[in-house]
Design brief:
The structure holds 2 protein chains of 2 kinds. In chain A, strand 9 (203-208) and strand 10 form a beta hairpin. Chain A is elongated, with a radius of gyration of 24 Å. Chain A contains 9 helices and 19 strands. By secondary structure, chain A is an alpha+beta fold. In chain A, helix 3 (92-102) packs across helix 4 (107-120), helix 3 runs parallel beside helix 5 (136-148) and helix 4 packs across helix 5 (136-148). Chain A has helices at residues 42-50, 72-75, 92-102, 107-120, 136-148, 166-183, 194-200, 218-223, 228-233; strands spanning 4-13, 16-26, 31-35, 57-62, 65-66, 77-80, 154-158, 186-191, 203-208, 211-216, 238-248, 251-256, 259-265, 276-281, 295-307, 312-318, 321-327, 338-344, 348-352. Chain B has 2 domains: 90-135 and 184-314 and 322-351, MetI-like (MetI-like fold); 377-602, Orthogonal Bundle (MetI-like fold), CATH 1.10.3720. Chain B is mostly helical. Chain B has 26 helices and 5 strands. Classes of the chains: A alpha+beta, B mainly alpha. The structure holds adenosine-5'-diphosphate and magnesium ion. Adenosine-5'-diphosphate is lined by residues 13, 16, 18, 36, 38-44 of chain A.
Chain lengths: 364, 607
């Protein structure tokens, strides 16, 4: 169990900059997640930590030891690959025992540890099977056991759940979290699934195009997105573009279409009246009753209404602007009807448009 | 943003290299350089010992007044004798023209058979498929001998004339001789290479492409010419280039037909003359010319095929192939044209088998008498069994080298991120483009020069040079099959092991090799039978190790076959045929094991 530090790490593939000047610190025993869209450099970051790739610039430290030039087999990390990478010509036992044999442990100790590991991942008695005889979920557990059994300094998980079906995914997610807590192993988790990242992580690093967009607890990432990318990547927000009318302290009034919205100024970029701004509104922040804190009122027609089970998703149009909002599941206003919704000012995020960086996706 | 101190190239290189990877790189580079590149390149030096302008002398270069009479019709009393012998344009042009004609004719034959088998469904198709495999079986010299007995000049009437005249009562005798005989033999022998390449190319064409063209109105031959053929062109070009080289370096047909005005024969004759102490300074120049012709062909069609495509024909089948039922005209064509063609090309193998079971084939049109004694003769005849033993030893050792080099090259190219390593792959595939006779001559010249009197000196003892030459010549086939295996193993499997503490050497021995066991086994078998049937090096260097009629000679099996045929003694021809049958059995065993037991999809290409 070690502390991990990346110091200004850059990795290029030809002209692609897969990881760009990344600096980050991961604490002892922390479960730290790299979250970002596909191709943003998450796997590359993980592979740099494991030593499968050499950075073009920067350094990597395990505790205070510079491991940048250490070979993968000298680093003591253990990775769970997206496709599990179980060796098909070995039994489950041999797969899990592999790392222990390399460490020259006595035979009966290997046996004991493999047994324990299989119990830990809830596959007791699976020793003699071959990987092809296992289901996807079982393979996943074996891969996890194989990595954990060597008591790695750092556990690396590259989208470990992406090949599982939805139900199994939830189950394994909890399992991984439980094991990680129990063993207290420093863990780097990679996923493109924001919900997965939110639920499992101590801290999250949101990445885009090889860069860190924000590092923080799930709570911080959700409630204090530092830039438009993070704000729009997390959740299913509506992203609007408008012009700043006036600014008072940290509240800006923005004209979007014919709609005036007030929100709090986010991000690092200075904002001035007359400038372009981007607004991010999360659908779950709308309220039916006027809240106590200062708020915006949206009065419009229902253009779309979709029952989603735990909530009812509506699209409301006001002043030529469409906004997505979640209502209580039993609240199903008919199409075309008038609807009034409220949203607190401090839950409307306003960013200077120069910071927009190309939002990953805009709200529907 | 300011650039930070980046990692240098050297650091990067050091990261990939350790003692093990260094050996994995140095070993194949050393082998390929010392035992392939340098000997072959030494032909350049050898050529300087000869005044190259002499190559323009009439016997070598005679483009304007060819001798020979092409095709002659001789009227006799109530019959016509057709004598086909071709023309003689001098040694160099003969080689080129012959190889070109062989390639063209083999391509036409190969395309037809491949197309019929790949695209049509008809009764007895399986039979045709099996029949089409037969011509692939290699029986050096004996196949040419059988063809000469059937079509060529003989003391009596050849089998074809007997068939036409005595059976069909046509007033015709036909005799194919000289260069025409060589050409005919090579067409029959080498067309399966085109057939196989074309067949796998056709299976690998996305059927949607053809269907789309059909929707746009292309049909029949137009569809074939405008869509199918261009898509299959890389496969076809690869096959055609191979056939060209094989034809260029083939010594069997010229020896059997006694046609000496061709490069291969001249180079071969140099080695025969060596024991008689003859001096032929031109041979170095001829070897160089042969090398340059071969390289020209490969460079010329480079745009269609990459070198590595030659050595591997996967039997393909990513797609569900487009198979149609031919109409009655098509069926007629298949049964009346394609079946007879394939049957015709099986004649040498059928002839060899028959001959091996016969008492004699003298002046009669067909072999006569039945006996199994020829196989017993293999054991009793002086020097014959020794040849088999030698071949087994040479091939086994050569295969060991082949497998080691193949594994190293495949590992280095597929796993190490060091620039320039793909050149190693190219180098390992290059022997395909180098005629065996050039390798043989290169070995002789180079190792006589730098290692005279050592174990590498072929005149002192050809065993080691033969083994090394075999290993280089047959390397590409195993290397391709093993390389394909390495590329199919996901690199995450290596990484998972390294990640858990395995060094690269350990990854190779505990993950990759066990996983690739079947690829390696197939590569081993394939290169073994290719070595057993090797001709060019065998009959040149192989003849330097004592008279193969004596018990302790160094010649391999093909050298013995050559000797039995060209220095006839009692039953020696039948004995040669029996040896041919043994080679065929080995090849069939290998094919069966590879396809049925190892379930590998690499097609056997006779070579
Ligand atoms: N070995 C490689 N060679 C070339 N480009 C690569 C390689 N690995 C990754 N890339 C590129 O680097 C970028 C980041 O890839 P990756 O780290 O795999 O993203 P992610 O895991 O976030 O989906 C992508 O543009 C990808 O195409
Ligand atoms: Mg990835």
């Amino acid at each position: 169990m070690v502390k991990l530090r990346l110091d200004n790490v850059t990795k290029r593939f030809g002209r692609t900059v897969a990881v760009s000047g990344m600096s980050v610190e991961v604490e002892h025993g922390e479960l730290f997640t790299f979250l970002g869209p596909s191709g943003c450099g998450k796997s590359t970051t993980l592979r740099l930590i494991a030593g499968f790739e050499l950075p073009d610039e920067g350094k990597i430290f395990f505790d205070d030891e510079d491991v940048t030039l250490k070979k993968p087999y000298e680093r003591g990390t253990a990775m769970v690959f997206q496709n599990y990478a179980l060796w098909p010509h070995m039994t489950v036992y041999d797969n899990i025992a592999y790392g222990l044999k390399l460490r020259k442990l006595p035979k009966n100790e290997i046996k004991r540890k493999v047994k324990e590991a299989l119990e830990m991942v809830k596959l007791p008695g699976y020793e003699d099977r071959y990987p092809t005889q296992l289901s996807g979920g079982e393979q996943q557990r074996v891969a996890l056991a194989r990595a954990l059994v060597v008591e790695p300094k750092i556990l690396l998980l590259d989208e470990p759940l992406s090949n599982l079906d939805a139900k199994l995914r939830l189950e394994m997610r909890e399992e991984i979290r439980r094991l990680q807590r129990e063993l207290g192993v420093t863990t780097i988790y990679v996923t493109h699934d924001q919900e997965e990242a939110m639920s499992i992580s101590d801290r999250i690093a949101v990445m885009n195009k090889g860069r860190l967009m924000q590092v923080g607890t799930p709570h911080e990432i959700y409630y204090k997105p530092r830039n438009i990318f993070v704000a729009s990547f997390i959740g299913r927000s509506t992203v609007l573009q408008g012009r700043v009318l006036r600014i008072e302290e940290d509240v800006a009034e923005v004209l979007v279409g014919n709609l005036r919205l007030r929100g709090i100024v986010m991000g690092d970029e200075a904002m001035r009246p007359g400038g372009e701004a981007m607004i991010v509104i999360r659908p779950e922040f709308f309220e039916k009753e006027a809240p106590r804190e200062p708020y915006n009122t949206i009065k419009g027609r229902v253009a779309l209404s979709m029952f989603m089970g735990v909530f009812n998703q509506v699209r409301i149009e006001d002043g030529g602007v469409g906004l997505t909002a979640y209502l209580e599941p039993e609240d199903t206003p008919p199409l075309g009807s008038e609807l009034t919704l409220y949203i607190p000012i401090n839950k409307v995020y306003v960013y200077a448009a120069s910071q927009a960086l190309l939002p990953y996706k805009t709200g529907m | 943003m300011a650039r930070h101190e980046g990692l240098g190239r050297l650091t990067r290189l050091r990261y990939e290299l350790d003692a093990f990877t260094l050996i994995e790189i140095i070993f194949p580079v050393f082998m390929l350089t010392l035992f392939l590149l340098l000997p072959v390149l030494s032909t350049f030096e050898a050529a300087t010992k000869y005044r190259l302008s002499n190559l323009l002398g009439e016997s070598y270069w005679n483009p304007w007044n060819p001798t020979g009479q092409g095709v002659r019709l001789i009227k006799g009393a109530g019959y016509t004798r057709i004598v086909v012998e071709g023309w003689n344009y001098g040694v160099i042009l003969n080689s080129v023209i012959n190889a070109a004609v062989v390639t063209l004719a083999a391509s036409i034959l190969g395309i037809i058979v491949a197309f019929v088998l790949a695209r049509y469904e008809f009764p007895a198709k399986t039979l045709l498929r099996v029949m089409a495999i037969v011509p692939l079986l290699v029986t050096p010299f004996v196949n040419a001998y059988v063809i000469k007995k059937i079509f060529g000049p003989t003391f009596g009437t050849n089998t074809l004339s007997w068939f036409l005249h005595d059976i069909l009562h046509l007033p015709i005798y036909i005799e194919v001789r000289n260069l025409a005989g060589v050409t005919l033999t090579q067409i029959i022998t080498f067309y399966p290479i085109i057939y196989l390449n074309m067949f796998s190319a056709l299976l690998n064409i996305d059927p949607n492409l053809e269907e789309q063209a059909e929707n746009l109105g292309a049909r029949g031959f137009k569809l074939f010419r405008t869509v199918t053929l261009p898509l299959a062109l890389p496969g076809l070009a690869a096959g055609a280039a191979l056939v060209f080289i094989f034809s260029l370096e083939d010594v069997g047909a010229p020896i059997i037909f006694g046609f000496r005005d061709i490069l291969s024969y001249r180079i071969f004759a140099y080695f025969i003359g060596l024991s008689a102490g003859s001096k032929s300074p031109e041979v170095g120049a001829l070897a160089l010319v042969m090398l340059l012709i071969a390289l020209t062909v490969f460079v010329g069609i480079r745009q269609y095929v990459s070198l590595r495509q030659y050595a591997m024909i996967s039997k393909g089948g990513r797609w569900k192939p487009r198979i149609t039922k031919p109409g009655w005209k098509g069926l007629l064509a298949i049964y009346l044209v394609v079946f007879p063609i394939v049957l015709f090309t099986m004649l040498p193998q059928l002839g060899v088998i028959t001959l091996s079971l016969s008492e004699r084939w003298g002046t009669s049109p067909l072999p006569q008498g039945f006996t199994l004694s020829n196989f017993a003769g293999i054991i009793h005849r002086s020097g014959v069994f020794r040849g088999i033993e030698n071949s087994f030893t040479y091939s086994t050792l050569a295969v060991s080298i082949i497998i080691l080099v193949s594994i190293s090259v495949s590992y280095v190219v597929s796993r190490l991120r060091i620039p320039g390593m793909t050149a190693l792959d190219t180098l390992a595939t290059m022997p395909i483009a180098i005629p065996g006779l050039v390798v043989a001559y290169g070995y002789f010249f180079f190792f006589r020069g730098i290692a005279r009197g050592t174990i590498l000196d072929p005149l002192r003892d050809p065993a080691i040079p033969i083994i090394l030459a075999y290993s280089m010549r047959r390397l590409p086939f195993a290397a391709r099959s093993i390389f394909a295996g390495f590329s199919q193993v996901h690199e995450a499997l290596d990484e998972a092991a390294m990640n858990l503490g395995a060094t690269r050497r350990k990854v190779l021995s505990s993950i990759l090799l066990p996983m690739l066991l079947l690829n390696i086994a197939s590569g081993t078998l394939l290169s073994f039978v290719y070595c057993m049937g090797e001709t060019s090096v065998s009959v040149t260097l192989g003849g330097l190790g004592g008279d193969v009629g004596t018990p302790n000679h160094r010649g391999p099996i093909t050298m013995v076959i050559y000797d039995l045929i060209s220095n006839p003694r009692a039953n020696s021809i039948q004995l040669a045929a029996a040896l041919g049958v043994i080679l065929m059995s080995l090849q069939i065993t290998a094919i069966v094991l590879i396809t049925l037991v190892f379930k590998q999809s690499y097609a056997f290409i006779g070579v």
